[in-house]
Amino acid sequence: MWNIQKADFAKPAGVAGLGSKKAGKLGKLGPVVEKIVLPVETDTEKLVNYVCGSNILKQGQDVQLKPDSEYPDWLWSLRLTKPPPLEEMDQNSIQYWRRLRKLNNQRQSRLMKLKKY
């Protein structure tokens, strides 16, 4: 009387199917690649005296750090924090006007996002 068909071609969805992908198996976007773990230098003597990772060649060694007196004076006066506020900058400098233009562009962009067309 009733003709019921069963769709047995689909896999049952369940918890067992989660996380079962293995490396090299194809996923939706291609083969699944395992995360590469990069070696980290733990030798404190080498970390203090050398620029670790500066040698990109197979042979040789990393660049050795020199004493502070061998580096130029301007290197130690570089600003490493946030740039100064706009009010503290000199209005006759090009950096002031570039920063002012950037801030105005950001403000205008935020205002245009609120505008409904």
From TrEMBL:
Its main location: mitochondrion. It holds the Pfam family Ribosomal_L37. GO terms for molecular function: structural constituent of ribosome. InterPro entries: Ribosomal_mL54. The keyword rRNA-binding does not apply. It comes from the Eukaryota. It is found in: Mitochondrion. Keywords: Mitochondrion, Ribonucleoprotein, Ribosomal protein, Transit peptide. GO terms for cellular component: mitochondrial large ribosomal subunit. The keyword Ribosomal protein applies. Belongs to the mitochondrion-specific ribosomal protein mL54 family. This is Large ribosomal subunit protein mL54. It comes from Daphnia sinensis. The gene is EOG090X0KWJ.
